[in-house]
Design brief:
643 residues, five-stranded mixed sheet, 26 helices, globular, binds flavin mononucleotide, binds iron/sulfur cluster, binds FE2/S2 (inorganic) cluster
Length: 643
């Protein structure tokens, strides 16, 4: 088997060395949605019509190939151009992305119409097509490749390193990049105890939200008696806006499989499940293909690396309920029961799938495992902080110039993420203003909102917990000053209320109650009592719920109440929404000092609420006004406020 792996790597390397250039087209979900597959097809057409040789799939010499492949590779005189697809490169907002190697040119927002020019200018004339390069919105600088783009420069892509470079559908490319060597080490050079010890020493903590030490979890499972044990990969990823796990499954599925194999070695499991939500069809397809390819090549299956230890992986699609990401609910779902959490203990390590000891780990955790075992725990610990070693992926969204998937070492500050990687805070029109920062919501529905005073807080498990937030799955939503924090709290409460499985009264009824109280506040019906009841209910739900969904559902409310109380009070006592987002509380008025009496607003108002004479200040009748904001939009003198 080991010789087989080496053969695959060397044949692939040999085939690749005959290629002159490589054109990588991002085929992650975001870029595919923006037409990257059409760009791919156009490249085939244009490269061929330019008379250049092209390979779309590398084949070893003598192997049977598709019509573009093996014959071309045998021509040593005309080195062909290799065209390949990759997983998400993180910069989805700028997609479809096209990378040209070895120059390292990155083209953004590429359309099929641009392809002919890329082929002529870059592939034939060796020059960059300047208009397709990324321009930094802050400095205005044109960047040739990722090395010059601040969004990438400041990151530390480790788990995501190969996503966006290797072809996720070609196992040989993973093997050629050193893949499955960590599994080989775990199966041939280490005992299960040694694997657990190495993981413990690495300090790797679960990336699925809780931050539990992975080595500890594995060791607990390892010491359980009995021959049958399971490894489960949790690919449910139900947090709104999060797509880190999806990107890893789509962009580097073999890293997840290798992580599962090492976990299986550590605990003595012979069977595993990858649980992926139904809404991730590309991730499901790529994981399925990766499992089949790993089996076909003999890495996965019986007697792995001659160790006598076999491991089999099943792929299961979940129906997409957020609560099914909770480990006991997920196990119930695999067993064919309704996905509802169970009280712990017993922990899955003791009694998990079908009552057997089970390790359940997040996708990113598992993809980190080959890095730990392959390079050693000491090297892994070089990044991150003492108590949170390594790196973490975050889905950076909201009011920042650069949104997308990022990976930074634990301990990086929010300021670095928002201003340097994110490129700064934008206003509602998408312009970087330099002073618009209001808050960051971190950790999805389980997380909390942080303020300007937390901008220098290091992002790690413990410091975030200390201020009432959490790393969670890694959602990071930046908000500008025009954002109402009550509305944000309501957004997450609506989500958890919809997703509550209903097993606990406090979660089922409490989330409904909190939602109604937030509605009262936003509609101008809140009183002092409303605020009191909201806080009391939040604390009760936090205490009395069975699973993490209910326990953390109040976090967005409690953290906004803590850091943005004045905003709640303005809604309750002054019936005013300071951010101007709560429609019921808007009071459009015209400032007579600014109004020139141009009559534009009166003409535009759809309900005739504005009156006034030409060249004299106009007024809005609040009883007729429907707060549509048309007047503010049309007024060139900014005389209308309150909408
Ligand atoms: C409501 C709820 C949803 C969850 N969703 C996920 C999820 O989508 N993916 C995930 O890995 N963990 C999720 N978790 C955490 C898991 O229960 C579990 O802790 C995690 O998969 C363990 O893996 P780790 O130790 O590698 O983090 C969720 C927990 C709760 C309470
Ligand atoms: S806390 Fe909520 S989601 Fe969790 S078991 Fe109870 S009702 Fe279900
Ligand atoms: S559009 Fe502006 S300036 Fe003109 S009448 Fe209305 S409020 Fe006054
Ligand atoms: S899908 Fe292409 S960069 Fe994310």
């Amino acid at each position: 088997m080991i010789a087989e792996l080496e053969k695959v790597a060397s044949e692939f390397g040999n085939a690749e060395s005959k290629v002159s250039r490589r054109v990588i087209i991002c085929a992650g979900t975001g870029c595919v949605a923006n037409g990257s597959l059409k760009v791919y097809a156009e490249f085939i057409k244009q490269i061929e019509s330019a008379g250049l040789d092209i390979v779309t799939e590398l084949k070893a010499e003598g192997a049977e190939g598709d019509n573009h492949t093996s014959t071309l590779l045998q021509k040593s005189s005309s080195a062909p151009i290799r065209l390949s697809k990759s997983g998400c490169q993180g910069f989805c907002q700028m997609g479809p992305l096209v990378t040209i190697e070895p120059e390292g040119i990155l083209y953004t927002k590429v359309k099929p119409e641009d392809v002919a020019e890329i082929v002529q200018t870059t592939l034939i004339d060796h020059k960059a097509v300047e208009r397709l390069l990324y321009r930094d919105p802050v400095s205005g600088k044109q960047c040739t490749g990722t090395a010059e783009i601040p969004f990438y420069q400041r990151q530390s892509r480790t788990v995501l390193k190969s996503c966006g470079i290797i072809d996720p559908e070609d196992i040989r490319e993973y093997i050629h990049s050193g893949g499955y060597m960590a599994a080989k080490r775990a199966y041939t050079e280490m005992t299960p105890e040694m694997v657990c010890e190495e993981m413990l020493y690495s300090g790797l903590r679960g990336r699925g939200g809780g931050g539990f030490p992975t080595g500890k979890k594995w060791d607990l499972t390892r010491i359980q008696p009995g021959p049958k044990k399971y490894v489960i990969c949790n690919g449910d990823e139900g947090d709104p806006g999060a797509f880190m796990d999806r990107s890893v499954m789509e962009g580097n599925p073999h890293s997840v499989i290798e992580g599962m194999m090492i976990a299986a070695r550590a605990i003595g499991a012979d069977e595993g499940y990858v649980y992926v939500r139904l809404e991730y069809p590309l991730a499901v397809a790529r994981i399925r293909r990766a499992v089949a390819d790993a089996e076909a090549i003999g890495v996965l299956g019986d007697n792995i690396f001659g160790s006598g230890h076999g491991f089999k992986i099943n792929v299961m699609e979940g129906a997409g309920a957020f609560v099914c990401g909770e480990e006991t609910a997920l196990i119930a779902s695999i067993e064919g029961q309704r996905g509802m959490p169970m009280p712990k203990p017993p922990f899955p390590a003791q009694s998990g799938l079908w009552g057997k000891p089970t390790v359940i780990n997040n996708v990113e955790t598992l993809a980190s495992v080959p890095i730990v075992i392959g390079k050693g725990a000491a090297e892994f610990r070089q990044r991150g902080t003492e108590t949170s070693p390594g790196t973490k992926t975050f889905a950076l969204t909201g009011h920042v110039a650069n949104t997308g998937l990022i990976e930074v070492p634990f301990g990086t500050t929010l300021r670095e993420v928002v201003y340097n990687i994110g490129g700064g805070v934008t206003d509602d029109r998408g312009n970087v203003t330099g002073e618009g920062f209001k808050a960051v919501q971190i950790g999805g529905p389980s997380g909390g909102c942080l303020t300007e005073e937390h901008l220098d807080l290091p992002l790690d498990f413990d410091s975030l917990k200390g201020v009432g937030a959490m790393v969670g799955s890694g959602g990071l939503v930046v908000m500008n000053k025009q954002t109402c924090m009550v509305r944000i709290a309501r957004f997450f409460m609506q989500f958890t209320q919809n997703e509550s499985c209903g097993k606990c009264v406090l979660c089922r009824e409490g989330t409904k109650q909190m939602l109604a109280l937030l509605d009262d506040i936003m509609e101008g019906n809140g009183t002092e009592k409303t605020l009191e009841t909201l806080e009391r209910t939040a604390r009760a739900v936090q205490k009395g719920s069975l699973c993490g969904l209910g326990k953390t559902a109040p976090n967005p409310i409690l953290s906004t109440l803590k850091y943005f109380r004045a905003e709640y009070e303005a809604h309750v006592y002054q019936k005013r929404c300071p951010a101007g987002e709560c429609k019921a509380l808007l009071r459009p008025t015209i400032d007579p000092a600014k109004c020139k009496g141009c009559t534009m607003c009166a003409k535009k108002c759809p309900v005739g609420a504005i009156t006034g004479e030409l060249k004299k200040p106009h007024v809005i009748n609040p009883d007729i006004c429907i707060k549509c904001g048309a007047c503010a939009e049309v007024c060139r003198f900014k005389a209308v406020s309150g909408v």
